[in-house]
Specification:
The complex is a heterodimer of chains A (82) and B (89).
Chain A: H1 2-29, H2 48-81
Chain B: H1 2-24, H2 29-56, H3 62-81
Chain lengths: 82, 89
Amino acid sequence: MELADKVVGFLLSAISLTIFIYYTFWVIILPFVETDHFIHGYFLPQEFAILIPVFAGVALLCFLCVFVGYVMLKSKAKKKQT
Amino acid sequence: MKHILKIMGLLVAISAIWIGLLETSVIPRSFTWLLPVYLIVSLGCYGLLMVGVGLMLFPTCPQEAVLLQKDIREAREFLKDKGVDVGSD
């Protein structure tokens, strides 16, 4: 149990650090590199740097709304029963 | 209350710097537009990192758990001797 928590924590830290480093490279450093440099092959075009976070944010918000609604419906049904 | 003032001041300063960058166009425009998104993404990464580190370094004290179990057993026996029904574990 304790080990599983530690592994999950380590995975979360690693994922967040990876995303941060990749995004920093993509947004901050890449505009200063020439467009015909080989490193541009590893990154999507610049428009996706906005599209992906916005899409992820909208998906997260939708998920949260659905979850809150589900919990409220469930608690209402429980109250009716008692 | 003071915390919110600090956060508001920070936000205002960041937006002022950003608007200044937009107006003076020291760096290309399309690049300046990315900065707020970058800020939000880094904030999310920071939150995720803090959750991960907190989960990794969650303090546990196993010896205290053993002591607590011993206390519970003692209390059970004491109450049983006095004739109180505490159920079985």
